[in-house]
């Protein structure tokens, strides 16, 4: 409860920050976008999202934090010409009445093109209520906003979501990268996911690339983009745009 109270004040007191991690397009060799990752720069130190998002959800504060993150990310895009920005959204956020409106407001107040914003969600956000998720995502898609499925390939994946949801990008979970260099089957699996995604008109980003050897193995899968410490760690906006 104490944490929830401090968290409620955090947005007002400028204690929330977005860090950005670059996304590298393999065909061009250029950074084409960035994932926004929320941090709480509290009086007791930097708190990672895994620790405070669940608290914010319990306390019903996650919608306000989410609105803040969407507005901040869209405003920050002005300093990142030509790039897209991906914003993470939890199941609770996606299914809240105000969600689509929050996205619309963040777009209109910043004036950025909707195509430059990507909403990143996990399959678990969809599982709860696929029909409701489909409705919200359809509305965002009609605006031109991109939709990425995060942590793809883990958890209770159902391939039928790929048929029914307007997904633009699959983000292959970093657990696949860990042994892609030593396990040929892992590389074949990512290759297969990529072929399937491309046939369905989606692009593929592989997350968690930490070594040159992994990058080489990933290149051979035919995927479109990579993200990970090798390319760049999450950093403040000023460090990304410089
Ligand atoms: O940046 P880090 O690796 O600590 O992120 C941990 C988790 O927190 C990731 O799964 C990420 O998707 C999630 N996360 C980061 N920023 C946000 C955010 O703004 N909103 C939500 N709901 N989750 C976020
Ligand atoms: O679940 P999601 O993909 O949103 O999680 C993003 C988180 O993954 C970020 O908090 C980031 O810190 C972390 N991350 C990003 N790149 C790497 C990487 O190369 N290795 C590891 N171990 N974690 C990473
Ligand atoms: Mn993510
Ligand atoms: Na992920």
From TrEMBL:
<protein>
    <submittedName>
        <fullName>Diguanylate cyclase (GGDEF)-like protein</fullName>
    </submittedName>
</protein>
<feature type="domain" description="EAL">
    <location>
        <begin position="1"/>
        <end position="242"/>
    </location>
</feature>
């Amino acid at each position: 409860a104490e944490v929830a109270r401090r968290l409620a004040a955090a947005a007002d007191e400028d204690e929330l920050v977005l860090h950005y991690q670059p996304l590298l397009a393999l065909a061009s060799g250029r950074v084409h976008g960035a994932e926004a990752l929320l941090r709480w720069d509290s009086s007791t130190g930097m708190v990672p999202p895994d620790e405070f998002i669940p608290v914010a959800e319990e306390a019903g504060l996650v919608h306000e934090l989410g609105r803040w993150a969407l507005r901040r990310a869209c405003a920050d895009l002005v300093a990142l010409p030509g790039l897209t920005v991906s914003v993470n959204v939890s199941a609770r956020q996606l299914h809240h009445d105000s969600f689509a409106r929050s996205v619309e407001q963040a777009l209109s107040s910043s004036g950025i093109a909707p195509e430059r914003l990507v909403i990143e969600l996990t399959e678990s956000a969809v599982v709860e209520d696929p029909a409701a998720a489909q409705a919200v995502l359809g509305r965002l898609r009609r605006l031109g906003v991109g939709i990425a499925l995060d942590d793809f390939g883990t958890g209770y994946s159902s391939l039928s979501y790929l048929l029914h949801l307007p997904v633009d990008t699959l983000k292959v979970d970093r657990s696949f990268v860990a042994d892609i260099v030593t396990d040929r089957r892992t590389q074949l699996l990512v290759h297969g996911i990529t072929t399937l995604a491309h046939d369905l008109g989606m692009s593929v980003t592989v997350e968690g690339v930490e070594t040159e050897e992994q990058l080489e193995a990933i290149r051979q899968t035919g995927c479109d983009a990579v993200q990970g410490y090798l390319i760049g760690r999450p950093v403040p906006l000023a460090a990304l745009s410089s």
